[in-house]
Design a protein that fits this description.
The complex is a heterodimer of chains A (313) and B (575).
Chain A (H helix, E strand, L loop, with lengths): L3 H11 L45 H4 L27 H10 L19 H6 L1 H10 L2 H8 L19 H13 L1 H4 L8 E6 L6 E4 L6 H12 L21 H8 L3 E6 L5 E3 L5 H8 L2 E6 L14 H4 L3
Parallel strand pairs in A: 1-5
Antiparallel strand pairs in A: 1-2, 3-4, 3-5
Chain B lengths: L5 H8 L5 H7 L4 H10 L2 E4 L7 H7 L5 E5 L19 H9 L6 E5 L5 H10 L5 E5 L2 E4 H10 L5 E5 L2 E3 L18 E3 L9 H9 L6 E3 L6 H10 L5 E7 L6 H11 L6 E8 L8 H4 L4 E3 L9 H8 L6 E5 L3 H11 L5 E5 L13 H10 L5 E6 L4 H10 L5 E6 L14 H10 L5 E3 L6 H10 L5 E5 L5 H10 L5 E5 L5 H5 L10 E5 L5 H10 L3 E6 L20 E6 L12 E3 L1
Parallel strand pairs in B: 1-2, 2-3, 3-4, 4-6, 5-7, 6-8, 8-9, 9-10, 10-11, 11-12, 12-13, 13-14, 14-15, 15-16, 16-17, 17-18, 18-19, 19-20
Antiparallel strand pairs in B: 20-22, 21-22, 21-23
Helix pairs in contact in B: 1-3, 5-6, 6-7, 8-9, 9-10, 12-13, 13-14, 14-15, 15-16, 16-17, 17-18
Classes of the chains: A alpha+beta (313), B alpha/beta (575).
C-alpha cells in the first residue's frame, strides 16, 4: 500500500495548476483533487473536501490515487480545473475526460489487494477521513460499502434455489433478454458467467443480473477470490457512475495488481468498466477474467459509444 | 443344473436387457455368472467413483456400451464446486488400452475434455454413439475430432452441456463420404453454425431421424433442412424469427407437411409466437413436445398448438401456460404420461400462472400420467389428496413450491398430509421430491408407505433427526437420498451405517451433521467414501476438539469397491 507520504508526493507533482481551488489550510501544497477522492460525489458540489482538513494536513482521501469501476462514487469536478491525467495512455481520452469532466472511478473496485480490501469501508476507518466519508457519501454508496457482499434486497437468493439447472436459467435469460423490446417485460432469470482468475485453481460463476452496477460485481468477486490475491494499491473505494481511467492502469501495472476483464460477443478481451452496466455490459459480457495487471497492457477499453448520453454535468 | 449348453443360455440372456435383471441372473450360480459377464453388452455405472475401469474390464471384457454418471444430482443447481471431479479421461484411457470394442458412450454430469474426445475418436474403430448430458470441460474442437475420425458414427447427442464454442468448423469435419448420421443434437451450442456444411451433411444422411438445432440456425435454413430430411422423427427448432408470410415461412410450411414421420418437437429458443401455426399439420402425430425453452411463446398460441396434439405422451412446458392452459392439456391429451412445468420467473416474483388447480386438472384429465415435475407458487393438502386419488400410478412425483417452508395456502398447515396421500396411493412411486412446509410427519408417511421409493429429494423440511430416520428405516429400496437445508444431524446419520451399503449415495448440505459425526461414520464404514466438500477457508476443520461442533457444509457419501479416489481437489476431504 502506498504510504501517505508517497501519495502526497505523487499528487503534488501534478498539482501545479494554478486553477486549483483546493488549497490546504497548511498553505504549502496545492492539492489537485481531480480524483475527487472525497465525499464530493454530489454533482453540484464544487468545493473540495481538502479544505475541511485540519491545518497542515492534507486529506488522505484527497491525495489518494483512485481507480474504480463505473458505478463507483462519482467525483464532481470543477470545469475550470485543468484535468490532465497522470499517465495518459490514450491521448484522445484525455480530451473526452476534460471536456466532459468525466469522473475517475474509484480505484478499489478494480484492484484486489492483499487482505485489506481497500473499499470505502476500509478507508472510512481511517480517522482522518472518517467524518467526511460518513457524512457525505450518498446512500447508495454506503449500502454498497457496508453490505458489500449482499445482493440487492429484492433478490435475496438462496444458492441453488429454485432447483433449476443453470443451463436452463442461462438459456431462458438469453431468450428473454433478446425479446425485451417485443414484450416490454424486463429480462427475467439469471445470467451466469464464468469468472476465472490467473493463478486460481478453479473457476467460479456469478449471476450478472444479481448486481446493479460494477461496484456490486466487484465486491462480490472480491469476496470470492480473496484468497488468491496479491499486490496492493491504495484506494478510496468511492462508488458512483464512473468511467475507467486508463491512467490508473499504469499504477496497477507497476504495483502488479489485478484487473477485471471480460470477453465480449466478438471474442475480444476488454477492460471492465467502460460501458454502461445495464445497457451494454450485461448484454455483451460472456466471461469474466481477473488478469494480472501486466497481462492487461494493451487491452483496449471498449469504444465509448454511449458515453455522451451518460455524461454527468 | 444346466440342461442347456452355454450358447443357448447366452441366447436366452440376450433377451434380458435391463441392468437389474442381468445383475440378478448373474447371482444365480457360477456358471450363469460367467456366461452373463461375457455376454453383457451394456454396462451402466451410476457413480463413476464406485468402481474403476480396470475392474470394469475384468468383469465385463466384451461390453459395447458404457454409461457413466459423475457428479451428484445437486451439482445441477451449483451446489458442487467446480473441480470436484467426475473426469472421464482415465476411463477413456483405460478402455483405449484394452481391446474392448466400444461402440457407445453415454456420460452424465462428467468432465470431458477435448483431449478425451480426441482419444475416444481415435481408439475405437466401430464407435457409433456419443451421448453427453450436462457435461462440461470441452469445446467444439473436441467435436471436430469426433466428426473427423469416427467413420461409423451414428449419434452425436449433446444435451444441455457447457461447451466452449470456438465457432469453428466442426460440422465441416464430417467427411464427404460420411453418410451414416442418425442423431445430431447440438442445441446447446451458443455460437454460429456453418449452415452450408450443415445442409450438406443433412442432405447426405438418409438415415437421419433426430435433428436438434441451436439458436443460430435461422428460419430459412430450417426450411431447407426439413426439405432435405422429410423422414425426420425428432426435430429441435433453433431460431424462428420471421415475418408470418415470408417466403421462408411458406417454404417451411410446405416442408413440414411432408414430414409425416415427425413425432417429437422441441427447441424454439428464439421464436416468434405466430410460428407455431406452421406446425399444426403435424401436431396430430406428435407424441413428445418440449416447449420449455420457448419463453417467447405463450398464451393463445400455445393453447392452439396443444389443442391439435391429441396423441401427446410427453409434454415439457413453461408455467406461462397457466392453469387455463393446463385445463386444455387435460381435456386434449388423454395419452399424456409425463408432464414437466418449469418456472419462468426464477426470482420468485410471484408471477407464476400455475397453481394447485392446474395440477388437479391434469390429474383428473390424464389417466395415464405417471411422471410429473411441477414448479408452482402455492399448494394445498386438499389438492394433493385429490391428485393422489386421481392418479395412483405415479412413478415419479416431483413438486417444487418456489418459496421454501411455504404451508398450505388455505389452511396454513404443513403439507404433510398431502404428500402422505401421494405416497400412500402411489404404490409404485420410485422418485419423490418434496417441498413447502413439512414436519417430521411427512417422513413418517414416506417411511411407512413408499416401499418402492428409490430416490428422494428433500429441501428445507423436517424438524428433528427422526424425520431422516423414518426414511432410512422405512424405505428399503432407497438408492439416492439428497437433502439440503434440513435439521438432520449426526444421530440420524450414524443410526444405521450398513444402510448406506444398500444405497448408491447420500448427499447432505446445510444440515446439522458435524465433522466429528462424519469421521465416526467413515471409521465404521471403510467401504464408504465420506466426502466433505468445504470451500471456505474459515472452517478450520482439522482442529481436534471442535469436531463435535463443527458443522459440515456439504457431505457426499457413496459406497465404493475401490476406496478413496485420487483425483479429489484440495477442498474435498475424503475419510
Amino acid at each position: 500500500m502506498l504510504s501517505e507520504e508517497e501519495l502526497q508526493s505523487n499528487v503534488s507533482v501534478a498539482s501545479s495548476s494554478p486553477t486549483s481551488n483546493c488549497i490546504s489550510k497548511g498553505g504549502g501544497l496545492k492539492v489537485h483533487n481531480y480524483f475527487g477522492l472525497s465525499d464530493s460525489s454530489s454533482v453540484e458540489s464544487s468545493t473540495l473536501s481538502c479544505g475541511e482538513d485540519d491545518k497542515g494536513t492534507i486529506s488522505l482521501k484527497a491525495t489518494e490515487l483512485t481507480l474504480g469501476l463505473p458505478g463507483s462514487q462519482s467525483h464532481a469536478r470543477e470545469t475550470k480545473l485543468d484535468e490532465k491525467p497522470f499517465f495518459p495512455l490514450l491521448p484522445s481520452k484525455d480530451e473526452i475526460c476534460s471536456s466532459s469532466h468525466k469522473n475517475k472511478r474509484g480505484f478499489s473496485d478494480t484492484v484486489y489487494t492483499e487482505k485489506n480490501w481497500m473499499f470505502p469501508e476500509a478507508v472510512a476507518n481511517q480517522s482522518v477521513v472518517k467524518k467526511e466519508v460518513t457524512t457525505n457519501i450518498p446512500k447508495g454508496q454506503l449500502s454498497t460499502t457496508n453490505n458489500s457482499s449482499s445482493p440487492p434486497a429484492a433478490k435475496a437468493q438462496i444458492v441453488g434455489w429454485p432447483p433449476v439447472r443453470s443451463y436452463r436459467k442461462n438459456t431462458l435469460a438469453t431468450t428473454c433478454k433478446n425479446s425485451d423490446e417485443v414484450d416490454g417485460k424486463p429480462g427475467s432469470g439469471v445470467l451466469f458467467v464464468k469468472v476465472s482468475m490467473d493463478g486460481a485453481p478453479y473457476l467460479r460463476k456469478v449471476d450478472l443480473r444479481s448486481y446493479g452496477n460494477y461496484g456490486e460485481l466487484s465486491s462480490a468477486l472480491e469476496k470470492m477470490f480473496t484468497t488468491f490475491t496479491l499486490g496492493q494499491c491504495g484506494s478510496n473505494g468511492a462508488a458512483g457512475k464512473d468511467m475507467l481511467s486508463e491512467t490508473k492502469l499504469k499504477d496497477l501495472l507497476n504495483a502488479k495488481d489485478y484487473v477485471l476483464t471480460y470477453e465480449d460477443k466478438d471474442g475480444d478481451w476488454m477492460l471492465v468498466g467502460d460501458v454502461p452496466w445495464e445497457y451494454m455490459f450485461i448484454d455483451v459480457c460472456k466471461k469474466l477474467k481477473i488478469m494480472k495487471g501486466v497481462d492487461a497492457i494493451g487491452l483496449a477499453a471498449a469504444p465509448r459509444r454511449m458515453e455522451k448520453s451518460k455524461i454527468r454535468a | 443344473m444346466n440342461y442347456f449348453p452355454d450358447e443357448v443360455i447366452e441366447h436366452v440372456f440376450d433377451f434380458v436387457t435391463s441392468h437389474k435383471d442381468r445383475n440378478s441372473i448373474s447371482l444365480v450360480c457360477k456358471s450363469w455368472f460367467k456366461i452373463e459377464r461375457y455376454s453383457r453388452q451394456n454396462v451402466f455405472i451410476g457413480n463413476c467413483y464406485a468402481i474403476n475401469p480396470e475392474r470394469l474390464l475384468r468383469r465385463f471384457p466384451c461390453f459395447k456400451s458404457l454409461t457413466l454418471k459423475g457428479k451428484p444430482h445437486f451439482a445441477d443447481f451449483n451446489l458442487v464446486p467446480h473441480g470436484w471431479g467426475g473426469f472421464v479421461q482415465p476411463w477413456i484411457e483405460a478402455l483405449a488400452r484394452s481391446r474392448v470394442g466400444l461402440e457407445e458412450l453415454r456420460l452424465k454430469r462428467m468432465v470431458v475434455t477435448d483431449e478425451s474426445l480426441e482419444l475416444l475418436s481415435r481408439s475405437f474403430v466401430n464407435f457409433k454413439s456419443l451421448v453427453l448430458v450436462s457435461c462440461e470441460g470441452f469445446s467444439t474442437d473436441g467435436l471436430a475430432s469426433i466428426a473427423s475420425n469416427c467413420r461409423h458414427l451414428q449419434d452425436l447427442d449433446l444435451q444441455e452441456n457447457e461447451i466452449d464454442d470456438h465457432r469453428g468448423q466442426w460440422l465441416s469435419c464430417f467427411p464427404e463420404t460420411y453418410t451414416s448420421l442418425v442423431t445430431l443434437n447440438f442445441a446447446c451450442l451458443e455460437g454460429e453454425t456453418n449452415l452450408v456444411a450443415l445442409e450438406r451433411l443433412v442432405a447426405r444422411s438418409p438415415n437421419l431421424r433426430s435433428l436438434k438445432l441451436n439458436r443460430a440456425v435461422p428460419l430459412d435454413a430450417l426450411a431447407r433442412l426439413m426439405a432435405c430430411a422429410p423422414q425426420i422423427v425428432d426435430l429441435g427448432v433453433g431460431s424462428y424469427e420471421d415475418e408470418q408470410d415470408s417466403e421462408s415461412c411458406l417454404k417451411l410450411q410446405a416442408a413440414i407437411r411432408k414430414c409425416t414421420s415427425l413425432r417429437s418437437l422441441s427447441g424454439f429458443l428464439e421464436a416468434a409466437p405466430h410460428c407455431l401455426s406452421a406446425f399444426h399439420p403435424v401436431c396430430h402425430n406428435l407424441t413428445s413436445l418440449n416447449l420449455s425453452y420457448a419463453a417467447e411463446i405463450h398464451g393463445s398460441h400455445l393453447i392452439k398448438l396443444i389443442e391439435h396434439c391429441k396423441k401427446l405422451q410427453r409434454l415439457w412446458i413453461l408455467d406461462s401456460i397457466g392453469d387455463k392452459g393446463l385445463e386444455v392439456v387435460a381435456s386434449t391429451c388423454k395419452e399424456l404420461q409425463e408432464l414437466r412445468v418449469f418456472p419462468t420467473d426464477l426470482q420468485g416474483g410471484g408471477n407464476t400462472a400455475v397453481t394447485e388447480d392446474g395440477l388437479v386438472a391434469i390429474s383428473a384429465g390424464c389417466p395415464k400420467l405417471h411422471s410429473i415435475l411441477y414448479f408452482c407458487q402455492q399448494m394445498t393438502n386438499a389438492a394433493l389428496i385429490t391428485v393422489a386419488k386421481n392418479c395412483p400410478n405415479f412413478i415419479r412425483f416431483r413438486l417444487c413450491i418456489l418459496e421454501p417452508h411455504k404451508p398450505d395456502h388455505v389452511t396454513s398447515q404443513p403439507l404433510d398430509e398431502g404428500f402422505g396421500a401421494i405416497v400412500q396411493a402411489c404404490k409404485n412411486l420410485k422418485r419423490l421430491s418434496v417441498s413447502g412446509l413439512l414436519t417430521d410427519q411427512v417422513f413418517l408417511y414416506i417411511g411407512m408407505y413408499a416401499t418402492e421409493l428409490e430416490m428422494l429429494s428433500i429441501a428445507f423440511a423436517g424438524d428433528t433427526d427422526k424425520g431422516m430416520l423414518y426414511v432410512l428405516n422405512g424405505c428399503k429400496k432407497m438408492r439416492k437420498l439428497e437433502i439440503r437445508d434440513s435439521p438432520f444431524g449426526d444421530a440420524a446419520l450414524l443410526a444405521d451405517v450398513n444402510k448406506y451399503e444398500t444405497m448408491r449415495s447420500l448427499w447432505m448440505s446445510s444440515c446439522e451433521v458435524t465433522l466429528g459425526g462424519c469421521k465416526r461414520l467413515a471409521r465404521k464404514a471403510p467401504w464408504l467414501n465420506v466426502e466433505i466438500i468445504n470451500e471456505n477457508d474459515n472452517n478450520r476443520m482439522e482442529e481436534n476438539g471442535y469436531e463435535g461442533r463443527q458443522k459440515v457444509d456439504k457431505l457426499y457419501l457413496y459406497r465404493t469397491v475401490v476406496g478413496t479416489r485420487v483425483d479429489a481437489p484440495p477442498f474435498v476431504w475424503i475419510h
